[in-house]
Amino acid sequence: MRYFAPAPGLLLATVALLMGAVAAPGEARGEPSVDAGYALAPVPGSRLVPVFLAAEDDSRQFVGWFDRARGENCSFAVSGDGVMRCLPTDGIQARHFADASCKQRIAITPSCSVPRYVVESEPIACAADVRHQVRELGARLRPLAVYFSEANGACTRVPIDPTMMYVRVGPEVPPASFVAARYATGRPQLFLKAEYPAGGPKTTPSNGAGGPKAAPSNSADGPKAAPSNSAGGPKAAPSNSNIEGP
């Protein structure tokens, strides 16, 4: 799967948001809250990174995970050791057998698109989750007969498709080689990925952290006062001393 880089000139910045602090304004306006929109926002780790489907209008949709250490796409499921892990998605189920007793599992795949792994699903009694054993693809074979295990336990012979490729099931890939995960409770601080133009986000200019920029003044004591001729009050209106009164 290909990766879609951000548009040129954009930098990725990590913004820390408190989910409860910013949810209320959106709800008051009838808009989706951060809890609804970003509670499941994917956060990259040291090994797993999110994969997005990028549209030509710069919108993006999360579609899965990529394991950088193994170089493959993966999704979370219960592995063969009972631990939740990011297991590779490039695999097929081994649902058929090469013997009449349904003991020797084989996989059937199109010859034009051969997967990397074979996955064996193992239901566990009294457990809600199914364990998945990831195995290597084995040697190719040309079986004389192919069988399928029915739901009632019967091993039924099925026709051989000459257009398909039949392979044996190889050794299991060590479950510990896949990234493990666990369910976390609580409401920790949420980290979101935001894109800003080169140089960082624009901010409103201010004189300090206390608030917006104040109106200019001539001194620290306050605004400039109206001019006067003396300390006694404002300048009086001019008079003509040469004109006598009535």
Distance between the termini: 104 Å
Question: Number of helical segments?
Answer: 2
The overall number of domains is 2
Into which percent range does the helicity of residues fall? Answer: under 10%
**Count of distinct strands:** 14
Largest sheet: 8 strands, mixed
Helices and strands: which structural class? mainly beta
Please tell me what the overall shape is: globular
> Helices and strands, in N-to-C order?
EHHEEEEEEEEEEEEE
Low-confidence stretches: 1-34, 190-198, 200-212, 228-234, 236-246
Strand order of the largest sheet: 6-9-10-13-8-7-11-12
Give the averaged pLDDT, no decimals. 72
SS strand fraction = 35-45%
Radius of gyration, rounded?
36 Å
Topology, please?
Layout: E1 10-17, H1 19-28, H2 34-38, E2 48-54, E3 60-67, E4 72-78, E5 84-88, E6 91-93, E7 96-97, E8 105-110, E9 117-123, E10 130-141, E11 146-149, E12 155-158, E13 164-172, E14 190-197
Parallel strand pairs: 6-9
Antiparallel strand pairs: 1-14, 2-3, 3-4, 4-5, 7-8, 7-11, 8-13, 9-10, 10-13, 11-12
